Write a sequence for this structure.
């Protein structure tokens, strides 16, 4: 939520326009440049937070599902089997439901590991 709100207000002004406006209005002071540098630090911090949150979601999904990266999982969809070598897991939660997503590399029909990526979604509704 924080990162979506922050990126929504980003609106980049070209560097030359910013420099010209600062010279005209503020002389030697550079408040716009300072604000832009502060904004870049906030963006870097948001990137770190997003990385940390994704790692936490992955660890939580692994502990709940009992699936680790490298495991092989199988499911049936529309009468066809899908077999994946797990490359990542995540979860998305709201007040009403939780969705687990297992990402992986598909196996071919002959049983060898292919190159195509696919995912399995597990959706659970809460007791609201």
């Amino acid at each position: 939520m924080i990162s979506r709100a922050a990126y929504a207000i980003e609106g980049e002004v070209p560097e030359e326009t910013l420099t010209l406006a600062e010279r005209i209005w503020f002389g030697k002071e550079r408040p716009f440049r300072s604000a832009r540098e502060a904004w870049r630090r906030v963006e870097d911090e948001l990137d770190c937070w997003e990385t940390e949150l994704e790692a936490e979601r992955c660890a939580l999904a692994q502990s709940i599902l009992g699936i680790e990266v490298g495991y092989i999982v199988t499911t049936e969809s529309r009468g066809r089997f899908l077999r994946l070598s797990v490359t990542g897991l995540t979860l998305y939660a709201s007040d009403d439901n939780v969705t687990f997503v297992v990402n992986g590399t598909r196996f071919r029909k002959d049983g060898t590991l292919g190159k195509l990526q696919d995912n399995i979604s597990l959706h659970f509704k809460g007791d609201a």
The beta strands are 72-77, 80-93, 97-107, 113-125.
